[in-house]
Task: inverse folding
């Protein structure tokens, strides 16, 4: 967190995802967490009017995925699923 504050001193930084999800100043969130947290975080974000970028795997099962897609469609929101390669060897080597 301190590294982010130093790099972007004018940007608010938090360790509480609820602050971000509930903020009226945030339009979209990136969910780059363990897969078992994806569904709950995505549902909270979509329920609070946020577009989401979420890394693969999207959810733990197809029922969760279908529910999130339906929620996004009902609320006119976008879900983008991608692989950020955050924990792959080349990325870890590059970041180190």
Result:
């Amino acid at each position: 967190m301190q590294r982010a504050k130093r790099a972007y001193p004018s940007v608010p930084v938090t360790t509480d995802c609820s602050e971000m999800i509930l903020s009226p100043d945030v339009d979209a969130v990136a969910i780059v967490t363990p897969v078992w947290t994806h569904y709950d975080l995505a549902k909270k974000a979509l329920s609070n009017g946020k577009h989401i970028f979420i890394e693969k795997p999207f959810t733990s099962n197809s029922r969760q995925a279908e529910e999130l897609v339906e929620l996004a469609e009902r609320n006119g929101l976008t879900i983008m699923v991608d692989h950020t390669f955050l924990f792959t060897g080349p990325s870890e080597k590059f970041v180190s």
DSSP finds five helices and three strands in the chain.
